[in-house]
Amino acid sequence: MLTRNSSDVIVVGAGVVGAACAHYAAQAGLTVTVVDRGPVAGGTTGSGEGNLLVSDKEPGPELELALLSTELWRELTELLPPQIEYETKGGLVVASGEDGMRALRDFAAGQEKAGVRAEEVAADRLHDLEPHLAPGLAGGFLYPQDAQVMPALAAAHLLKAGGDRVRLRLGEEVTGLLTGGHGELRGVATATGELYAPYVVNAAGTWGGEVAALAGVDLPVLPRRGFVLVTEPLPRVVRRKVYAADYVADVASGSAALQTSAVVEGTAAGPVLIGASRERVGFDRTLSTEVLRRLAAQATALFPVLAGVRAMRTYAGFRPYLPDHLPAIGPDARVPGLLHACGHEGAGIGLAPATGLIVARCLTGGRPPLDTGPFDPGRFLPAA
């Protein structure tokens, strides 16, 4: 079991990805210390909408990770309490015209070959699924595998499920990494002392690059800001996650410029969440009225009923962005004992269980559940 300052592994970051790493490591019999300079879910996780999506991912490594996580989230709901608000409500992607529908058909056809369930919805059936949608849309695709959780509570309960094998050290910033005579990791230094473990998992989200730098390695994680509008509590006027087809292109884009596309979803608690925006402006949290105006206009164009609804609050968050849109997961060959689990951009909540399972398998010498090559943290090194 845990001693006061030592454990089998230290996880830096108490967001949902760090919580999943700690959870699966504890399940594998390891003792875990989770260190965070703030509270549980104090970073990107606490600013997220809780999306567990396959609908926005093209065939490839990230979709494989998402499909595995979809299954693992279902398993976790048997273990975690209902307070995490896990809801398999599905996602609906809509197109305004025939060109958009053709693009959605092509996209869905490729996804279905990779194991995604997608059902075309004709224009005259859209209102059966979402009665308050705007008229005149060309159609859409329903993705029944899409789901949602309350992300902060999901992270907290993942940590709690680890029992005595998981210890939290909150409000402690990691200021350095401890190494042995051959450069291997021995633990971390914080403002209040030293913690010891032969393995350190960098699950610091948007600050993953800074933690990597403490080990003397480069991991080009950048913050990508987004805003969310939150309405007053409503009856269930939006049944699913509903978004316009151009959202998929925005997710895949590497542009630093402002991008907004309508993403609207109801929640079990009543408020409707409205997104999504993306821009690279560093860690600037300044409220952008231009972004909020665009989000409100796009949401009401999709759901006119929202025009008469009050927005109660808004919040900003920073997605941890890596240049190729894939997270860094697994051991860093440059520093023995260092593993990474960061760079998931806006998909970290959905991808957390698979990430945690991969990290736990790496820590215990087990076989990874899928090919981890595309997520190799060393892939950004210059070619020799």
List keywords for this structure.
384 residues; alpha/beta; eight-stranded mixed beta sheet; 9 helices; 19 strands; globular
List the SSEs and their pairings.
Blueprint lengths: L8 E4 L3 H12 L4 E5 L14 E2 L8 H19 L11 E5 L2 H16 L5 E4 L3 H4 L9 E5 L3 E2 L2 H11 L4 E5 L3 E6 L5 E6 L2 E4 L2 E4 L5 H7 L7 E10 L9 E4 L1 H7 L6 E8 L5 E7 L10 H14 L8 E11 L6 E4 L6 E5 L5 H17 L20
Parallel strand pairs: 1-2, 1-12, 2-8, 4-14, 12-19
Antiparallel strand pairs: 3-7, 4-6, 5-6, 9-10, 10-11, 13-16, 13-17, 14-15, 15-16, 18-19
Helix pairs in contact: 1-5, 1-9, 2-9
Helix content: 25-40%
- Kindly report the average pLDDT value: 93
Major sheet summary line: 8 strands, mixed
Structural class: alpha/beta
The end-to-end span amounts to 44 Å
Number of helices: 9
**What strand line-up does the widest sheet have?**
5-6-4-14-15-16-13-17
What is the H/E order? EHEEHEHEHEEHEEEEEHEEHEEHEEEH
**What share of residues are in beta strands?**
25-35%
The shape is globular
Which value, in Å, is the CA radius of gyration? 21 Å
Total number of strands: 19
Stretches where pLDDT falls below 50 for ≥5 residues? none
